[in-house]
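Data card: per-record layout.
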Amino acid sequence: SNSPALAKILHKSIRHKDSDVYKEWSTSLRNRPITALRDLLEIGPDGTREPVPLDEVESVEEIMKRFVTGGMSLGALSRECHETT
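The structure for this 85-residue chain is written out next.
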C-alpha cells in the first residue's frame, strides 16, 4: 500500500475499527495495477506449505558475516538502534 490513497483507507479502517473499510482497502489492494515485483507474490495462509528444513537454512553465523547496517534505510532504524547494531 504505497499509494497515499490506499494508506488513508487502511488508516481509517484501523482508526475506526471498521471491517467494511478494511475490506474496501483489501479489495483495492488486490485490484490495483502491478507496479513492483512484490505485487507478483502470492502469500497463502499459514500451514499451506511445508516449512523449510533447518538443514537447508543458512546459519546465523553465516548471515552475520554479510550483515551491515549501512545497507538499511536510515529511516528504518532509530539513531540508537543504528548505533547499537
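Known properties of this structure: The CA atoms of residues 9 and 25 lie 6 Å apart. Helices lie at 4-15, 19-31, 60-66, 79-84.

See the next section for split statistics.
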